């Protein structure tokens, strides 16, 4: 597969065209941002970890019947994925209170919910990714009701799988954000990434944070936390 011109550069990844019109290459960077790009930094080795972890999880999810954009890992930082139009919806699942949920509702972090919650934000940096409900998403033509129903079905299956997988390596899956895309032939697939950038991961015993909150909150040992997740997941 030939890597052609760059199509897009986001905050954490670059996307390149290939000689196949239905396939693009994502190239993961070590750049880290928080608070809609206000805070900037580097997490050394993050691109490699996020690439490998996303691919590992997407391949497992495919086996569970969740369609994903994954095609083939090309190098430590590069992966061929199906070319999709991203649904401009960030889908957030929470199993334990933390982050913006704790802040919005005035509760402490660490409350274990009886059932997972789901919420959507409008993926729009200029507006700061505002929260929205399903009616808003349909009114704004971000997705159809059928697409939203499918996205919710996939999302709860993804949560069930990831939560139990993480538990098996001593990690509580607190919450995460995923994105879906639509392929040229209209299939909805899991896209973007699943990584310590997009999940809150706490050690089940010490409750130590093993995710990007260490960067967001200036807690130190950011690289170590990403490495620790990788070590538990893939022995690397
Ligand atoms: P929140 O508590 O800040 O709303 O974050 C919920 C989850 O979404 C958490 O696992 C981090 C992830 N997330 C992203 O992946 N990208 C973002 O831009 C934000 C704000 C959160």
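^ Assign residues to that structure.
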């Amino acid at each position: 597969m030939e890597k052609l011109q760059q199509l897009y550069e986001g905050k954490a990844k670059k996307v390149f065209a290939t000689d196949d019109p239905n396939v693009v290459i994502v190239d993961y960077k070590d750049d880290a941002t928080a608070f809609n790009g206000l805070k900037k930094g580097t997490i050394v080795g993050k691109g490699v970890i996020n690439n490998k972890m996303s691919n590992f999880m997407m391949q497992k999810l495919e086996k569970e019947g969740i369609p994903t954009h994954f095609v083939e890992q090309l190098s430590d930082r590069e992966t061929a994925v199906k070319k999709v139009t991203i649904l401009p919806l960030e889908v957030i699942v929470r199993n334990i209170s933390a982050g913006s949920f704790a802040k919005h509702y005035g509760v402490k972090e660490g409350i274990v919910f009886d059932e997972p919650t789901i919420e959507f934000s409008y993926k729009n940096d200029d507006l700061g990714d505002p929260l929205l409900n399903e009616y808003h998403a349909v009114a704004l033509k971000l997705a159809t009701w059928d697409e939203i129903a499918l996205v919710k079905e996939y999302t709860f299956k993804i949560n069930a799988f990831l939560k139990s997988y993480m538990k098996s390596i001593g990690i509580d899956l607190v919450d995460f954000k995923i994105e879906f895309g639509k392929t040229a032939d209209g299939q909805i697939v899991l896209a973007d990434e699943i990584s310590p950038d997009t999940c809150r991961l706490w050690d089940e015993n010490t409750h130590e944070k093993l995710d990007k909150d260490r960067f967001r909150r200036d807690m130190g040992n950011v690289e170590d936390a990403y490495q620790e997740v990788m070590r538990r997941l893939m022995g690397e």
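The chain is about 30% helix and 35% strand.
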